[in-house]
Every structure is written in C-alpha cells, then in structure tokens.
Amino acid sequence: VMLGSSMAARHADLAGPVGAELAAVVHANRGLAGIDGTIATATGLALRGRPMRVLVGDLTFQHDATSLIRGTLEEEVDLQVVVLDDHGGSIFAMLEHGQEKYRGVFDRYFRTPQSLDMAAMARAAGAQYQQVRTVGELRAQLAQPVRGRSVVRIELADDGGASRLAAQVTSAVESVVAQELQHGG
Ligand SMILES: Cc1ncc(C[n+]2csc(CCOP(=O)(O)OP(=O)(O)O)c2C)c(N)n1
Q: Is 64 a pocket residue for ligand 1 (Cβ < 6 Å)?
C-alpha cells in the first residue's frame, strides 16, 4: 500500500489502528516530495512484483496521471490507484486559507477544482476504470486482487467532515496538554 500526500496520509493517520500490526507495508513519499510523482513511485514499488494499491487525492492523481501510461518495452504492473475525489485540494480548508474571510477566493486559488475525465484518462493509458458509489461497492472492489493497472474513483461529498474531525482532534489534544501542564506546574 502507498499513501499519497495531503489528506490521504492524514485520513489513514486519523482512522488507522494505533499500535496494531499492519497487514501490509505502507509506503509514502511524504517528507521527500510533494504531491508529484506519487503514481510513478507506486509503479516502481509494483515493479518489484508485488501488487500495489495507492490512495491519492484527485489533484495528486491529475498531477501524475501520465505515470499510468506504460512504455511499450516496460513490464505490465499490478497497480491500483484509488482516488479520493473531493474536487480539489481539501487540505487547504484545514489551514488558514480555509477561514471564513477567504471564502470568496478559496475555491479558485486554493481548492482549485478540476474537470479531468478520469475514466477517459484511464482508458487512454490502457488502465481499467471503476467508480464506486457505496461503502459496500468499495469493500467488494478492495476484496478483488489487484491485476494490471486500474483506477478506482470514489467521489466524496464536500461536507467539511475531515476539517471538523481534525479540529476535534486538535482541540482534544490541546485540552489534554493544558491539563498535563497544569498538573506539572
Ligand atoms: C508538486 C507539488 N505541487 C503543489 C503542492 C502543494 N499542495 C499540497 S497539498 C495540495 C493539494 C492536494 O490535493 P489532493 O491531491 O486532491 O488532496 P486533498 O488535499 O484533497 O486530500 C497541493 C496542491 C505540493 N505539495 N507538491
């Protein structure tokens, strides 16, 4: 498994089990790079002969979608790109750009929603494409073995859920730290 930068890695951090043995090795470019090259990195990992799933946001997908294309002299890889399509860079809603006073410019300058036809992109690269609409469909998709190159798109409603969850976690951590500091002092 590989996690893209931005919210993909953060979703896994927030929702993943703490201290549990993971069933898969988790890779990330975080710390080395931005959102660029994620699909290329996952392709390199898949070339070791082990099937790979990579979870990315829609801008991360678009940034590196041409890495789905296989050179005619290159081996086929077992790589599934799972795209969390929340219509642009939702991470910025959690930062200062997301404040109410920037509402008028936020979408155009920070979220930057795109109009890429992911199905056509996948087809052009010779990859399978599937859109899943329910958690059940996603589970069924993930239960299938990864064979060849494929794209699975999950369209997310922009209901601010991630920002709210992050704000709740931050305030819970702040209150625990404040309590500890009081005890310490
Ligand atoms: C090469 C590069 N360009 C720009 C950025 C700045 N950047 C950080 S996160 C992000 C948005 C990513 O959007 P998406 O992949 O859709 O993920 P989401 O924020 O929705 O989880 C951008 C543009 C970057 N990290 N790397």
A: no
CB-CB contact of 99 with 73 (8 Å): no
Angle at 64 between CA 123 and CA 58, to 5 degrees: 80
Write phi, then psi, for 80 (nearest 5 degrees).
-115, 125
> What is the number of the ligand 1 atom nearest to the C-alpha of 36?
1
pLDDT digits (tens, 9 = 90+) for 68-123: 999 999 999 999 999 999 999 998 988 888 888 999 999 999 999 999 999 999 99
* Token pair of 54 as six digits: 């990579």
Judge whether 80 and 148 are in contact, CB under 8 Å: no
Nearest-CA residue for ligand 1 atom 26 is 34
* Nearest Cα to Cα of residue 62 among 120, 148, 12, 149: 120
**pLDDT per residue as tens digits for the range 129-144:** 999 999 999 999 999 9
Report d(CA 85, CA 149) in Å as an integer: 19
Q: Where are the beta strands (DSSP E) in 78-126?
A: 79-85
pTM of the model as a whole: 0.89
